[in-house]
Amino acid sequence: MPAAERQRFFVLLSTHAFRGEDLSHEELFGHLSGDEFTAEEAVEYLEVSMSTFRRHVASGKLQPSVTVGRSQLFAVADLKRFKKALKLAKG
């Protein structure tokens, strides 16, 4: 998770920690649904190494949503689906 998002995450958690409320995934991360991550941010979000991430991209398992020159951006919604698939594959 990128540092700025990690900070927002912990602020939200601490704000609601003692109210007895459980926040949904959408409440915590809903603001990211339309965003795009750089490869470095995607690696951190997926919790994989850069080489593993590049292999997934090269094999077509992950597609960049935008390519500008050599830079690629990846849609958060696609990364979320891919992360779920990775967790299911691991069991």
TrEMBL record:
Membrane-crossing segments per the record: none
Domain spans labelled Helix-turn-helix: 37-84
UniProt key word DNA-binding: yes
Name of the protein: DNA-binding protein
Cross-referenced SUPFAM superfamilies: Putative DNA-binding domain (SSF46955)
Keyword DNA-binding: yes
GO molecular function annotations of the record: DNA binding
A Pfam family hit: HTH_17
UniProt entry keywords in alphabetical sequence: DNA-binding
